[in-house]
Amino acid sequence: MRMRAFWMLGLALMLAGAAVFLAQNWLQSQKPQIVEVPAEPQVQMATVVVAATPLYFGNTVRREHLREIEWPAGAVPPGSFSTIEELVGDESERRVALRAIEINEPMLKTKISGFGGRASLSTILAPEMRASTIRVNDINGVAGFVLPGDHVDIMLTRPVNAAAGGDNNLLTDILLQNVKVLAIDQDANEDRAQPAVVKAVTLEVTPVQAQKLVLAQRLGQLSLALRNITNAVAEKPRTVTLRDLKVGEVNQSIGESPKAVEKTVVVKKTPKKKKEGLSVRIVRGLASTKYEVQPERKPLFSSPSESKPLDLVTNKVAPSTSFSTGAATSEVSGATGPIVSKPVSAPLSLLAPTDEKAAALEGVAQ
Hints:
By secondary structure, the protein is an alpha+beta fold.
């Protein structure tokens, strides 16, 4: 009995140990696994001076307009400043803004002048470009909606023949395309938003284009056409003359195909009026009779070759007259003798009399 009890106790201890081992393994598997992630390399930072307030063309750059921020060292813009002291110096000589600068925009050397500089038009010109001014008004200047920073096309209207005058002798060409406007009158602020009618517009052009503008102002009249700010594609120019002016031309965007306009045409049928024939009304005493007269129709067949037109005599005809058909003769005699004697050939219908001698002439004809 004792040996059996010992065996039972030993078996129970073994089962208890196995249960503890399995439970421990299960608990270990339920714990979250910690994955070691390699540490990211630290980004080296640098200091860059940015605008603390908006700056516009001609504004003096002062210390209160600036602040320093951290900037990735590998992405520092060229021409930037690392400290405010480097930008403003001892403030004995000022710097001015040459272009509009927004908040948190880096201060670059290309956007501000040097020490003691001024906001002149020459400071915002590209090195290879020139500034040329043309005269405009409220019509050819797009009613004042052309502002600094916009791009325009320049059109020239001139006579075809300088010797011949009149408006019928004019043509218009596109002289220059996509030209930047530097200033209107004496205002070069690109942040200007209010339109204004001006008398002069200054353009950024090449030296050769400046020569063309000077010559074109002597030849004719220059006009501006405002372009979309995102459209920099040059179109193929075409000369427009008086013959190209069309009435009712549809304004369509480039690339759009013209759509056919459906029209409904209503056709009204007018009833034909019945042709009324001629009528003759004969009144005998108190009685009247109406007779319908059919219009004369052309014969279906031509008359015989021996039939000829009648030769009528305008002289006074004597009372004695004789007629015959076929190739007969007609004799008319007057008081002093025969007047006319000519051959007569005509159908009997032309010889049918309508007076009181109808019976006598009808007997002769038969």
